[in-house]
Amino acid sequence: MTDKQKVIVALTSASETCTAALSALASRNQRNKSEPQTSDLAVIVKDLDSLISLIYNTSTKLALVLKPSSPTYSASLPVIVDLTKYTSGIAHCIHLLNPDLHGATLIKELQHEVTAIFEALRAVVQTFLNLAARGPSIARNDSAEEYLVRTGTLHDLITQARGPNGIPKDNISAIRRRWKQDRAALEDSLREVSEMIDGAEGSENDDVDDGWDELGLGDTGAKMDGDELARAKNVHSVLRLTTLLHKRIFLDLLSSTPTPPGPPPSLALDALLLQSHALLAASDELVSSLYIPQNPATIRKESLALLDIINGLQLQLRIFFPDTSSLEQQLSGLSIEGDKSAPTPSKLTADKKWFDLCFDQVTKTSANLVSPMYKSPPGVGQKPR
Q: Residue 47 — φ and ψ, nearest 5°?
């Protein structure tokens, strides 16, 4: 067997390893949970980062030794073997993670990053496999430069994964990232309702040509009537509170440096993030129901759905506020003189009081929206019935 034939076999094996690794990532949730787990997350993440770095360096070597114009097949064989080994190692690191112990959100983030890297690596390997199979004449073709594009894409993904916005170091970091994404979307929804209200009350920009009229999608001239405007303002008040609540949870409870008595279990944090996603979805549906002509029954339905999510969120937050008396005893033994960052019982009590008041205010502000017989707030005109 010639060196070229050996390379073709090795590249085929590397491509198959990438495919197997991708399959393992996609099906890891169905694995046997009785398997032994490695509990040291720091070690796993460090090994993962090292292996990804090795993929970067080794793929660079592969691009040099298998340059289409002058491939060195004998020199490429150990490089391909190393790529295959590192690919299996990365898949093994992901396989070691336990959602109950390390966090489901962290694992999802890692799966997302690593899946993109494996797909890009497989594309690189397949490109060199195609070049080797077609012969040296392909080197004169423009498509020979494809290997540079594929390798560059792989390098970009690895650089991103190893950067500050790439692979999270732990579950709380992964949750904070996703929480910030949800918060930005919630703020967009609140801004959307504000624009509805401004448009209904008359805006200084009514005569501005935004280009939509030319496409037949411009303002038809229809505006909210008194009742519709009242509902929109009511929803705006509710969403302003829920957005503020969401922000305070991030700032006060999802700290990147948890303080005594320590962070809640990963399962609780993952469940809290699911509530955040549900809050975002419910908010979007409620905002959509405000577009004219409004259907009060639909707005009531979506308001009830949002309120149900808020009630579930309130239950989820209980784990952050254990019994005050026992907590005071724990903190008294942990406090260090001069440590101003350590939480005090009064701080935790004040936080709990704020959240309780906020949840109560959301319920009160939603009262009109969820009432079977909606009534506009005082001072807002109603259309004749």
A: -65, -40
Parts of the chain with a pLDDT under 70: 29-38, 135-144, 203-221, 257-263, 323-345, 373-385
Structure tokens at 141: 């073709």
- What SS3 class is residue 295? coil
Q: Which residue type sits at 71?
A: P
Reported as a single tens digit per residue, the pLDDT across 291-324 is 999 999 999 999 999 999 999 999 999 888 876 5
> Residue 67 contacts by C-beta under 8 Å, 6 or more apart in sequence?
147
Could you tell me the two tokens for 367?
A: 């009262």
- 261 residue type, one letter: P
**Which letter, b or e, does each residue of 312-327 get, where b requires 16 or more Cβ atoms within 10 Å of its Cβ?**
bbbebbebbbeeeeeb
Residue given tokens 């894409």 in the structure block:
153
Q: Which amino acid is at 336?
A: I
CA distances from 327 to 239, 252, 265, 337 (A): 33, 17, 17, 18
